[in-house]
Design goal:
about 425 residues, mainly alpha, Growth Hormone, Chain: A
Length: about 425
């Protein structure tokens, strides 16, 4: 039965939340450090595989592994997050990743380049468990009226660390070598675990009751989560937004973005500076967009749903501007709009799930969401690569992406119109 979400609480500011909620603050600080390490690892592992193999195909394979590992582990991750202490899962994942990353330090011979894929799969698989549990635990340690600002800050943090972490990781790898970057990455997991250790976490009653369920029955529990999504089509539709964004807006454009930086507006060796600026722009846009939009929508469910449609249209407009390839500043402006729109749709869909999904099934819902966007990310990356080879005019491919991006936006607009829900809705 739907349960009302109270709207009588005073509005919580971003700095108020950080200052007043110690548990969430420690979780957030752990996120900052962990994301810094993640970007260090991405730059370092890509550089290492490139130096050992000198193969573009090998580098592409690394990104496929990074996308597929969370997909394969998602059913297991969801059941764990709903059946065990979420704080302990987070700490355990950090500890395991310390030793996985240390393994990269011993790969110095081309004949062992395959180990990079193995360690990457392990790290990203464990990371999939971590991020599922992290998103599931957030509503457990914040009040309902704090979910909006907590989600906005967490998403902005990801964007800021995208802009800063990748840049610093590149500088460290370039100046001190990739092994220094791997060493720093392993230390970040230690620091993250120490922050999370300070979180005072009360395990929800639903999770406590279910802890006795054998993990070997995880497939049955995961199927229960799928049946929950079938029972609530509204929730299922929200979980598919990230998959739609990866399929239409994100993964394909990332490949096109490399072409833009390297072949059309190169700055620095092989357009490395151009690419860095484009990634930094994406981080700024995806961080600022949801925060600005939330100042108008608040945490009202009906407003969040409608604004997701606007996000798709803003993103499509950004791609249209990019497709002109008029100049690098124009591409940057278009990229900013693309990331603003995509950020709104991404962050608001996450907030809706945090507001609407009850704790006993939250982990499995988030793991299904993760699996769907990991799978579509791989599909989009492979398809876009083929299209870029088949169509020599990059501007046409990007323009086509803009029209495709409108499709899920239009479907979501129709869905919201035909299936309106009020701000008291909650699927139990």
């Amino acid at each position: 039965m739907p349960q009302p979400l109270s709207t009588n609480h005073p509005k919580v500011g971003y700095f108020d939340l950080i200052r007043s909620n110690k548990n969430w603050r420690y979780l957030w600080l752990g996120q900052i450090v962990s994301l810094l390490g993640d970007w260090f690892n991405l730059i370092a592992s890509a550089s290492l595989i490139a130096s050992l193999t000198d193969s573009g195909f090998a580098i592409g394979g690394l990104f496929v592994v990074r996308a597929l590992a969370p997909f394969l582990v998602s059913p297991f991750a969801g059941v764990m997050a709903d059946r065990y202490n979420r704080k302990n899962i987070l700490i355990g994942c950090d500890i395991v990743r310390i030793f996985i990353v240390i393994g990269f330090l011993f790969i110095k011979d081309p004949q062992f380049a395959w180990v990079i894929y193995l360690l990457t799969a392990l790290q990203l698989g464990v990371g999939g468990v971590f991020f599922t549990a992290r998103r599931a635990i957030t509503p457990d340690i914040v009040a309902p009226h704090e979910i909006g600002p907590a989600n906005a800050i967490g998403s902005a943090t990801w964007s800021v660390m995208l802009a800063i972490g990748a840049a610093i990781g590149g500088l460290v790898s370039g100046a001190f070598g990739v092994y220094t970057a791997f060493a720093i990455d392993s230390v970040t997991f230690i620091v993250s675990a120490l922050f999370i250790l300070r979180v005072k976490y009360q395990v929800p009653a639903e999770v406590t009751v279910a802890r006795s369920v054998s993990i070997w029955r995880f497939h049955e529990q995961y199927l229960d989560g799928l049946r929950y999504l079938k029972r609530y089509p509204e929730i299922l539709a929200i979980t598919l937004h990230k998959a739609a964004l990866q399929l239409t807006l994100s993964s394909g454009y990332e490949i096109a973005q490399v072409q833009i930086a390297k072949n059309i507006f190169p700055i620095g060796v092989a357009g490395a500076i151009s690419l860095g600026l484009l990634y930094a722009t994406s981080g700024v846009g995806s961080g600022l967009g949801p925060i600005i939009a939330r100042s108008f929508t608040g945490d009202r469910i009906s407003h969040l749903r409608k604004t997701i449609t606007l996000g798709y249209f803003i993103a499509a407009l950004g791609l249209v501007i990019i497709s002109t390839l008029h100049s690098f500043p124009v591409v940057v402006i278009g990229g900013l709009l693309r990331s603003v729109g995509g950020g709104i749709a991404w962050v608001f869909s996450t907030q809706l799930l945090l507001l609407l999904v009850p704790t006993h099934v939250r982990g499995r819902v988030f793991s299904f969401e993760q699996a769907s966007f990991a799978l579509t990310s791989s599909i989009a990356a492979a398809t876009s690569g083929l299209l870029l080879d088949a169509f020599p005019h990059l501007s046409q491919v990007i323009l086509g992406m803009s029209f495709i991006t409108l499709i899920p936006g239009i479907f979501w607009f129709i869905w919201c119109f035909k299936r309106p829900i009020n701000d008291d809705f909650r699927a139990d």
